[in-house]
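User: For my dataset I need records formatted as: sequence, then structure tokens, nothing else. Please produce one.
Assistant:
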Amino acid sequence: MGNNEVTITGLDEIQKLLNRLPANIEANVMRGALRAGVKVIETEAKTRVPVKTGKLLKSIRISSRKRGSELKVTLKAGGKGAKHAHLVEFGTQPHVINAKPESVLEFLQGIFAKTVMHPGARMKPFMRPALDAGRHLALREMAAYARKRVNKELLKK
């Protein structure tokens, strides 16, 4: 088996068991399984994110939503207080920063200017490497969660 391959046995068995459950329970099982897998990636991302103030670290979170038959579980970084997540992940090119009209920029404690040249920032990826490092374990966690939960649901019947 190559480095990019992972084998999970029993997926057909899980699907057959899922088919025996009511649709709403099946959706709950799948949401939990997806969240269990994404949790692995979230944990990995939190160990890899560069920490200056801690706001970017705190912004890493899992969300899920269901629209019709589509279920989506997402790992996000950024948002309120950490709008710079993409700039850390992908870096920036050198660029000019202009002050707003009727204003000036302050940098280096006490130096003022209308325009400054930002040298750019090196990328410090944390999300993609987390996915690369954790994907095999994430798939195994998803399958394990689904097996456990399906069996629990079927025992209730």
